[in-house]
Write a structure and sequence with these properties.
CATH superfamily of the largest domain: 2-enoyl-CoA Hydratase, Chain A, domain 1
CATH topology of the largest domain: 2-enoyl-CoA Hydratase, Chain A, domain 1
Number of helices: 19
Number of domains: 3
CATH class of the largest domain: Alpha Beta
Number of strands: 21
Distance between the termini: 37 Å
Radius of gyration: 24 Å
Low-confidence stretches: 1-9, 24-40
Helix content: 25-40%
Shape: globular
Structural class: alpha+beta
């Protein structure tokens, strides 16, 4: 069962970690050798000569750009897992993530039965101003670009929108009628915060999904609001956060430490050593604090967890983090692409480098499941050298950040059909269609908790879900009551998300989250 589950989960988890982890060196480029200086070398190497000859003389037509990309990737594969070649298109997307904004129309959507359903409309965004509602179906752009139906253009809505001009004409289907509206693109934020609310009268909760250039300001604004609501202790959830901009991580850590305390330092043979220290006393140096991590918390997330753990400033709860302790620098190339090259390692204040070995890199995470580490605390053996914190707590380098309080992964609630429901998006689609069908009644609920208390899934709903899942080749008939209960609880959480946004999802889902329960219990000690 575990093996099948891993075959499904790992490609997605590793892809997210590899892509997001690349951005941690973005802010370091000014501190290293200038990227452009490398591009001034006009030397005609053997590799470039070979590509040139192929382009001019080969018997068949060859896509030399593709050939060049393949060659570069083969070279980088000999170095480390995080040095990579980024195409011009990929670079635009990554830069948007790093900046924390993008140019768009302000919608979320799901492709259901060949129809593009609008699942989210950004408040005060272009789509809302143009009269777009949740539940609308987008039929086409600019009259000729079909995005729903059998003849829809199969390039992806995001890619199509990115190439269109600022003014987009949209044909919409709603409640049996078709109409048109014009939407003007605008610069929209990509929020780093999924949720920020009070778990109880004194415990605040913030979930960060990434570290971008706007993360710190978002974080501080959220803390101000939570403080006004009575925050006396804080849980920062970094599970699933695969990293991002280094300075965002250091700015957040600064708020919980004192002036000049070391947060992290980087060092490489070509770029030397650079320290990142607190620039002043933080605003919350005494706030009781816990940080949640798991096997997909990587890079900048590990910097936050590692620094706060080294200074005995926070209790780390969850499971051992991914183990990505490398810093990448971005070098722009003449063709509009970029090279993300590892130039240094980063070290926590005590001198820990938590990078796991390159050998069998992709298999390492799988091994942690197969060996039982994610299920049993006594199998979670720390890797690397031991270090002692100021309070005498022993921590370790190598292979990720080991939590102070271990919470096992519960495999019993996620047999393969359950995993398929989540990874294929089947459950989220089913929940959204339920929301659209019952939107009038569901919109009468004013809080996520009111919705959850009134929405009680019954046998009829389970039968409907089972039939819906069969269309995606998912058989729910053999699930036990525990797995079934977990799916129905998630269904309620997804409906809450459709009604109240991502925070609505976490407010409901966190009520049954074992890691959250353990964190609250630990804070009370």
């Amino acid at each position: 069962m575990k093996k099948n589950k891993l075959q499904i989960w790992l490609p997605l988890l590793l892809s997210a970690i590899m892509v997001a982890g690349m951005t941690i060196g973005y802010k370091l480029r000014k501190d290293t050798v200038g990227a452009n200086s490398f591009l001034e070398n006009k030397q005609n190497t053997a590799a470039s000569q070979v590509l040139d000859i192929i382009n001019k003389m080969y018997v068949d037509n060859v896509n030399t750009d593709s050939l060049q990309t393949h060659t570069i990737n083969n070279i980088l594969a000999q170095l480390d897992p995080h040095s990579t070649y980024v195409t011009a298109q990929q670079l635009r997307i990554l830069n948007d993530e790093t900046k924390g904004n993008f140019k768009g129309i302000g919608i979320g959507f799901e492709l259901i039965n060949d129809s593009v359903y609008i699942t989210d409309v950004t408040k005060n965004g272009p789509a809302e101003k143009a009269g777009v509602h949740v539940g609308d179906i987008f039929l086409s752009f600019n009259d000729t670009i079909a995005i729903s139906g059998n003849n829809r253009l199969n390039l992806g809505v995001v890619n199509i929108l990115r190439e269109l001009n600022n003014s987009v004409k949209v044909k919409i289907y709603r409640s049996g009628k078709t109409f048109e509206t014009k939407i003007e693109k605008a610069i929209l934020p990509i929020s780093s915060i999924d949720a920020a609310y009070m778990l109880n009268a004194k415990t605040a909760y913030i979930r960060l999904n990434k570290f971008s250039e706007i993360t710190y300001s978002e974080f501080m604004q959220s803390l101000d609001k939570l403080k006004a609501k009575g925050m006396q202790q804080l849980i920062i959830d970094l599970r699933g956060n695969t990293g991002g901009v280094l300075t965002a991580a250091t700015q957040i850590v600064n708020e919980f430490l004192k002036d000049n305390q070391l947060i992290v330092y980087t060092e490489g043979s070509k770029v030397g050593k650079k320290e990142y220290r607190c620039k002043r006393d933080g605003f919350y140096p005494d706030l009781k604090l816990e940080v949640l991590i798991d096997e997909t918390s990587a890079s900048a997330s590990e910097i936050v967890a590692g620094a706060l753990q080294d200074w005995d400033r926070a209790t780390i709860v969850g499971r051992r983090s991914y183990g990505k302790g490398l810093v990448e620098n971005q070098f722009r190339l003449n063709n509009g692409a970029a090279l993300r090259l590892t130039v240094a390692r980063y070290f926590t204040p005590l001198g820990r480098n938590i990078q796991k070995p390159y050998k069998n890199y992709k298999e390492k995470l799988a091994a942690r499941f197969h060996d039982g580490e994610t299920f049993f605390a006594d199998t979670s053996s720390p890797e690397g050298k031991a270090f002692k914190t100021p309070n005498g707590h022993i921590v370790y380098g190598g292979g990720g950040i080991t939590p102070d309080v271990f919470v096992p992964y519960d495999s019993t609630i996620l047999p393969k059909p359950s995993v398929d429901l989540f990874l294929k998006g089947t459950l989220t689609k089913f929940a959204f269609l339920y929301y659209v069908q019952h939107i009038s009644a569901l919109q009468t609920f004013k809080t996520p908790f009111e919705l959850a208390n009134n929405l009680q899934p019954d046998d009829a709903l389970w039968r409907s879900l089972s039939v819906f899942a069969q269309k995606d080749s998912i058989d729910l008939s053999q699930l036990d009551e525990k797995a079934k209960s977990n799916i129905l609880q998630k269904f309620v959480s997804f409906v809450a998300k459709d009604r109240f946004g991502s925070e609505g999802y976490f407010e409901i889902n966190n009520r049954r989250d074992d890691v959250i329960k353990k964190a609250i219990e630990t804070l009370a000690q």
